[in-house]
Design goal:
The chain is an alpha/beta fold. The protein has 6 helices and 4 strands. The chain has one domain: Rossmann fold (3-Layer(aba) Sandwich). Helices cover 43% and strands 13% of the residues. Helix 1 packs across helix 6 and helix 2 crosses helix 6. The structure holds 4-nitrophenyl phosphate. The site of 4-nitrophenyl phosphate (4NP) has 10 residues, from loops.
Length: 160
């Protein structure tokens, strides 16, 4: 069976999207479906390309058992849109930027907003925690845990 390939995207690929990748990785492991997925994350910008995840984000994530191991890279507007099945942005600006990059109608259809998969949180974005304090990092993880459960359910329903 072909793996479902998911790319999580935020602005810098050092806070929200590496966290989304780690939360999803832990979820699919706990559900025993790791082999069915391939996960990655990337940034709209290359500002932090080559950097590990933000230390504050890492610290909050590790308290919940998530290890942020990814290294920042920029979205590749040709290969990523071709390769991945789902390209998931964290906020409306990410979505506009991704829509602007999508090379074909088919790749445009792969784009979705992370919070659209939430069932417990009412947020319409995963708020950028970079310039804020501890509560912002915790909120990112709260929203992502909710959204990842919904995303997995949505993909599993689609496959049925
Ligand atoms: P992220 O957070 O998009 O969740 O990785 C940010 C990281 C860096 C910057 C902004 C947001 N920055 O401006 O450098």
């Amino acid at each position: 069976m072909d793996k479902t390939k998911i790319l999580f995207v935020c602005l810098g690929n050092i806070c929200r999207s590496p966290s989304a990748e780690a939360v999803m990785k832990a979820l699919i492991k706990s559900e025993n479906v790791t082999e069915a997925f391939e996960l990655d994350s990337a940034g709209i910008t290359a500002y932090h390309a080559g950097d590990p995840a933000d230390e504050r984000m890492q610290r909050h994530a590790i308290q919940r058992g998530y290890h942020l191991t990814s290294i920042s890279r920029q979205v590749n507007s040709t290969s990523d849109f071709d390769y991945f099945d789902y390209i998931i942005g964290m906020d409306g600006q990410n979505i506009s930027d991704l829509e602007g990059m999508a090379p074909t109608e088919e790749s445009w259809q792969k784009i979705s907003l992370m919070t659209d998969y939430c069932s417990n949180h009412q947020h319409d974005s995963v708020p950028d925690p970079y310039y804020g304090g501890a509560t912002g990092f915790e909120l990112v993880l709260d929203i992502l845990e909710d959204a990842c459960r919904g995303l997995l359910e949505s993909i599993q329903n689609e496959k049925e």
